[in-house]
Fold these 2 entries.
Entry 1:
Amino acid sequence: MDFSIRKTSSGSKKKHYSAAIIGSGPAGLTAAIYLGRSKIDTVIFEKILPGGYVTNIQKVENYPGFAEGISGEKLGELFTRHAEHFGSEIKSVAVTELNLDVNPFEIKTSDGSCTSDCIILATGTSNKKIGVPREEEFIHKGISFCATCDAPFFEGENVVVVGAGNSGVQEALYISNFAKHITIVECLDHPTCEPILLDRINKNDKIDLLTSHIVSGFKGDKFLESVDIKNVNNNEIKNIKAKGAFIYAGEVPNNELVKDKLKLNKNGYIITDEYMKTSKKGIFSAGNIRNTPFRQIATAIGDGAIAGHEAYKFLEGIE
Amino acid sequence: MTIKLYTNSSCPHCTRAKKFLKDHDIKFKEINISRYPEAAKELKEKTGQTGVPVILFGNHKIVGFDENKLKRLLNIK
């Protein structure tokens, strides 16, 4: 085996890489760490912010090593620096198209194109819109998907948070530093957040949890003024005065680049085996974008380690 | 030309906007809405939006971090 052929690149204009990672969340950056330590010439493409969606989380409390919690922004920065330390090149550009029918694979970006011998897809998920009347109209006019960005706009106001999973409840707790009152609306008859978070909202006088309800509409003139809430058991609708609504009602996979090229499950997530191999040889996937039963930073890290290791084996021809 | 950048301490897109301006040696005045709640109200009135980052200069207002738009309006190549 030739241990010297794939030196890590320091140039930024290079047109061919041994490995390309699309997405720089925990999965992509972990894969980069493993590839970098294997001296594989690796590029990471990130269209928004190095660190990925993690950087939007106000406080991460379930990632080992940080019992007191760490801000998502800081954790994302630590992951990014770690990947860069082992030589990965991060390009802040969007990948616009992939050609997986050629060897090496072709990658088109908003800043030119390049080729790569293998690709790891770690594009993650986006917040799902709830698809009710006037939702689009009020985005950034009361409706937000990022409490860490926009919560201060609702100082002293009533706010609705959609979804009582970990994200919704954690962000509601953060918003309570600003808002007068928060109603968490959950379509199921129970919250799905961790019990420790449920304890915190139960102790927070500013927060009420409304289960078995959905948001059925948004109302207002220039800005959001109120939210219609429907009881899923009797269809009764009531209107809650709220100038802010934060939506954490699930996720959709960011699969645009490969939806016609790889096997996806019925919900649009990339199907992989336990080695993070997709339906196409040389293409791996890791993190929230794949068919994993549990989408967490910790699980994405595990996926990224496997994907990085398997990509290395693929490049070196190791079975 | 004075560039005003409205941010929130914990907002990752604001961090990116700040880094972009610094990387291109563009001077700007930062107003953090979590420290100055009045600035959030003022911003909502000025832009008709409830989101940060916001960049204001001349007659331009850019809501969110839009690198291409910033490059075009600030004539950065």
Entry 2:
Amino acid sequence: MREFFQTIGRSLSHARDWYHAQPWWGRLIVVAVVLVGAVFLPYLGSVPGIGPQIITQGTDWYTALFHMSYYVLLALGLNVVVGYAGLLDLGYVGFFAVGTYAIALLTSPDSELNANWRWLAALPVAIMASVVSGVLFGWPTLRLRGDYLAIVTLGFAEIIRTFADSTTLLRGDRGFSSVPHPPGTKGNGQPLFGDIDARPYYWLGLAVIVLVILAIRNLDRSRVGRSWLAIREDEEAAEIMGVRTVKFKLWAFAIGAFVGGLAGALFAGENGFVNSSTFVLQFSILILAAVVMGGAGNIPGAILGGILISYIPDRLTGIQVFGIDAAQYKFLLFGILIVVIMIFRPQGLIPSRRRAAELRDREKEAAPQ
Amino acid sequence: MDFHALFSDFGTETTTGLATGAVFALFALGYTLVYGVLRLINFAHSEVFMLGTFAAIGIWGVLGYTENSAAPGVGMLIVLLVVALVAAMLASGTTAVLLELVAYRPLRRRNAPPLAFLITAIGMSTILQEAVGVGVGRYSTHRNPVGAPVLIKPAVVLSFGNTKIYSYQVLLVVTALVMMYALDRFINTTRLGRGVRAVAQNPDAAALMGVNKNRVISLVFLLGGLMAGIAAVMYVIKIGNTSYNAGFQLGIEAFTAAVLGGIGNLRGALLGGFLLGVVENYGAALFGTQYHDVVAFVILVLILMFRPTGLLGESLGRTRA
């Protein structure tokens, strides 16, 4: 098992090192090729030979692609919290829920607020609500040590879910229907974001992902990113060296919440229906699995992880294993993957170089057992 | 806020709360023991408990007692209880020890960062939960609850005012107290218990003094598992069914109980368990039953913010127990 992961890991690390060895225009070409590939991904099914094997059968391929796009967004957001700042957040679905519910409350005709806003008008409010909730939840809890923080974030997510389940304002299981889609019309006057064709949502998601990546990447290379690094490696030492740990941890929470709320708004806009059953704890764990699998603290890793956790279950839908639909096994599968990766390749499939070095250092310090 | 509901049923809320608290207390021991020694929140402990509940119901099924069976006589009842206790303790204890061997030991060997332990624990918890929830073919529970036979008819032992105390509630509370006393004695007076306290105090120094650290850690997981097995039988008697996610919410509550009493502190787990059981019932009466589960979380957040060491103070090694 160890060899298997090392082989995969080595080739992925080689690819990463090769990419970093290129001159700036070489890297640009690689990025452009990947991006163009992503844009044309909906047409993969028409590629003869491998195409029909790759696309999902039980799920509409365009919808599956849209799923991938918001899972990737969530993985990117959680990666900031867990990967960069090293804060284990088990309630990430809470921010996703805040974004989704803010959109539903403001736009759906079922809402008691009777606001009936359009999706685009509600979007900034949803994101702000998510960021505010991130700061509000973060502020009292960030003084806690790592493992306590994990439990408390889990508690917050469950509190949000309980409220969604049992208050009349949030409508519990009945949910909000006919949440409006994003705006825009095609040349022939038809709405751009319709009910059937999910491709526009995928492209919208892709555009948002590119913007988020640019923002996070720049933030990571700034003073904020270096503070996160210091906090992750040794919080006490960072504090002694003058890093304002609570402030920068709050930054990580707020940015994670921002991206989570954004993903929630996209989800609400595409799905058109929002109820409390989406926001279960397993959802948070799934996103955590994405970050850990891909390689915490690394943007390509988070993207790969997000794609995997969304693609694998969608691909398995409709296939019977032991008399049960294979997609039912998704949480089991990802549970196993989390443990196996933690034991055999703790740095993830595409680790950040610095992260891998940190782990190697710790291994050297280990006392012989 | 419904103060009338709170005060009109105050006695009943207290007694049922104490019965629930007994389950919390035994469940919380697993968290407290492991945390005291390894500084790890053993997330998968809730699944150790859950497997215990299935073992108890399973063994009753094998003996011919299913959901719809009539309540047995006293002699048979004792036999059934003992058999269930043995089965559940065996299942939970084995799971806990295997969990440590398979998942945590490789990480310790590599001196992995604390985050890695916690993530692995979450992974193991998901695996065990889903394995029971999804299962394979005929052995799938299809995520439905599995019913247990009603072994003890709810008989009133004592009653004053509108407060009634039932036989099973007495059984639960007494079992918790007895097991807690036994465990407390074990940790404080035996040679193995001294090893546990030594490793909790300072693992490296203990290892230098000739304590076998790995064996102590296995022992701690075993003890936590055994207590979870007892808690599992008590839970099945009290609730009457179990499901693949039975451990999740209860695990959070038990962990809250451990933190409330002071994590790593055995007597704290007992105090925290009973206290939480009672306070949760008061909270549910005050704010409505749908917020029953939220009470535990709110208490947890409040303690962690204002008194993170809990009521009786942290640490298995430093204080007396």
